[in-house]
Amino acid sequence: MATLTARQARAYAEVLKMRPEAARTLLKGTPTESAGTLLVHDCLDITELMISQDARRYQAIINAQDKRLETLEKAEGNGSLYQYTRAEIRLHQAAAQVAFGHEIQGAWNMRQAYQEMQGTVKRYPAYLPARKTLGMMQFFIGSLPEGYRWFLKLLGLSGSIPAGLANLRAAAHNPNDFQTEAQIMLALVEETYYKKPTEALQLVGRLAQQQPDNLLFAYLLISLNKKQHRTEAALTAYRARPIGAGYVPLPYLRHMAADLLLYQGQYSASRRENELFLKEFRGAHYRKDAYFKLYLAAWFSHDAVAAEQFRRQIDTGGRTVVEEDTYAQRFFDDQQPLNRHLTRARLQIDGGYYREALTTLDDFQATNATSLRDRLEEPYRRARAWQGLGQLDSARLLFARTIALAGTAPYYFAPQSALQLGYLYQAEGQRTTAKLYFEKALSYPKHEYKNSTDTKAKLALAELK
Fold it and tell me: Which domain of life is it from (predicted)?
């Protein structure tokens, strides 16, 4: 099977470290029209574009991808690496097109990439890099919420969660040029959708320790610790991240740090990080969320003028594609004031400060004027705090109470409660009860986190079969 040359592999390692100039320097000594060189160049371009989200660079990169595909078509060489490279470049192009609002072209390229990668795996079943990418596509297409499936059926794309996981595991567990990438993909899938955080944290921690100069591994270590409510560990990783002129600027790290500082009540420091994020980031995503977090930092600091200014800016820019931005926009549109105790408790729970959150919640007092949203949020937050502390009987009781109080209210507290109850009963081996709660989580027609909640519930149901 064709593999990258030693120099191409070193250049690709620099791409993973997010050091573009070092990668380009290494590529100067490789054959310009070889599949491996074209592939690493494309990985480099798509990494820089997707991280920067700089629309000014979009067309030049699309044009470069078209030229690479033409070169591959004309090349006399053939084999697994050539076919894999062609499909991989098409997938990169599809990702860029979707990210920058060209969904139809992106969907068509995704279809071609999927079919070409299927063909590569069929022709070269032992070529593991193709299984890595095909597995990723099979899994994510198979796990998409029902609202997206009609479009994929129109394109003739059908995913498979079991086949996707099998292909990912084959590429992750056996040596190949892209084994580390496959290991990371598999670990993130299992952490996000199958409640296996320990394995992911161990893998990323080991990679970051082995390569302290790798910005990607540092980012993953920060992100995973943040998702697992390990605020101090995440901030430690953030402060230890590699920095310097040779790295791709990664402004989103500042946005993550702003969240972590907000959890700790370091409001001025949180504001500084988010203001730097907004200044440095050229993309449209997470801008509304950043202004919402700036609002919170000012509001908790009793800076009413700044809080109002940040609140108004939620509506002025960015997009509502990612759920965090959708939540921020809904906060602006609803014009429903936040409860200080409930909001502080939410931040404390997100940060892993569960006992502090319970103390904060003790200060919440409902009155006749208290909104339904706040009445639902209080037991839900208590449930999450007790769940974090391992007091699962208390958590189950409060999750069930949230569901009973909610009825058909269009907030995420009840569907999330149902999802968490499903996980708790699944962990105890009560499959029938778990199935009922996962199905209930899917039954809510509209709420802020429907896409991610539905995807997780759907995957959990598939695992129960």
Answer: Bacteria
Query: What mean pLDDT is predicted for residues 180-189?
Result: 97
188-197 contacts, C-beta under 8 A, 24 or more apart: 188/220, 189/139, 189/165, 191/224, 191/227, 192/456, 193/143, 193/455, 193/456, 193/459, 193/460, 194/459, 194/463, 195/423, 195/427, 197/224, 197/227, 197/228
Q: Where are the domains of the chain?
A: 6-194, 196-250, 251-335, 354-465
pLDDT at 184: 97
Separation of alpha carbons 35 and 127, rounded Å = 15
Which helix (H) or strand (E) segment holds residue 460: the answer is helix 450-464
Tokens matching residue 401:
């109470």
Interatomic CA distance for residues 193 and 196, integer angstroms: 8
Query: What are the tokens at 106?
Result: 């992106």
Domains 6-194 and 354-465 fall in the same CATH topology: yes
pTM: 0.94
Spacing of C-alpha 239 from chain mean position: 21
SS3 of residue 145 by DSSP:
coil
Can you tell me the distance from the alpha carbon of 449 to that of 135, in angstroms, rounded to the nearest whole number? 26
3-state SS, residue 3: coil
pLDDT of residue 155: 73
**CA–CA gap between residue 416 and residue 438 (Å, rounded):** 10
In angstroms, what CA-CA distances link 391 with 100, 154, 251? 45, 47, 37
| CATH class label, 6-194 | mainly alpha
Q: Are 389 and 426 in contact (CB under 8 A)?
A: no
**Candidates 3.90.550.10, 1.25.40.10, 1.10.3720.10, 3.30.465.10; correct CATH number of 251-335?**
1.25.40.10
- What does the pLDDT read at residue 74? 87
Residue 433: in which H helix or E strand, if any?
helix 431-443
Measured CA to CA, the distance from residue 254 to residue 208 in angstroms comes to 19
Q: How far apart, in whole angstroms, are the C-alpha atoms of residue 280 and residue 284? A: 12
- Asked whether 446 and 410 are in contact (CB, 8 A), the reply is yes
What digits encode the pLDDT tens for the residues 309-358? 999 999 998 888 888 999 999 999 998 899 999 999 999 999 999 999 99
Backbone angles phi, psi at 137, to 5 degrees: -65, -45
Question: What is d(CA 141, CA 458) in angstroms, rounded to the nearest whole number?
Answer: 12
If pLDDT is split at 50, 70 and 90, which confidence band does 141 have?
confident
Q: Which CATH superfamily is domain 354-465 in?
A: Tetratricopeptide repeat domain (1.25.40.10)
DSSP state of 339: P
Q: What angle do CA 16, 19, 25 make, to 5 degrees?
A: 110
Integer Cα distance of 188 and 234 in angstroms: 16
* Residue 302 to residues 203, 258, 268, 452, Cα–Cα distance (Å): 42, 18, 12, 33
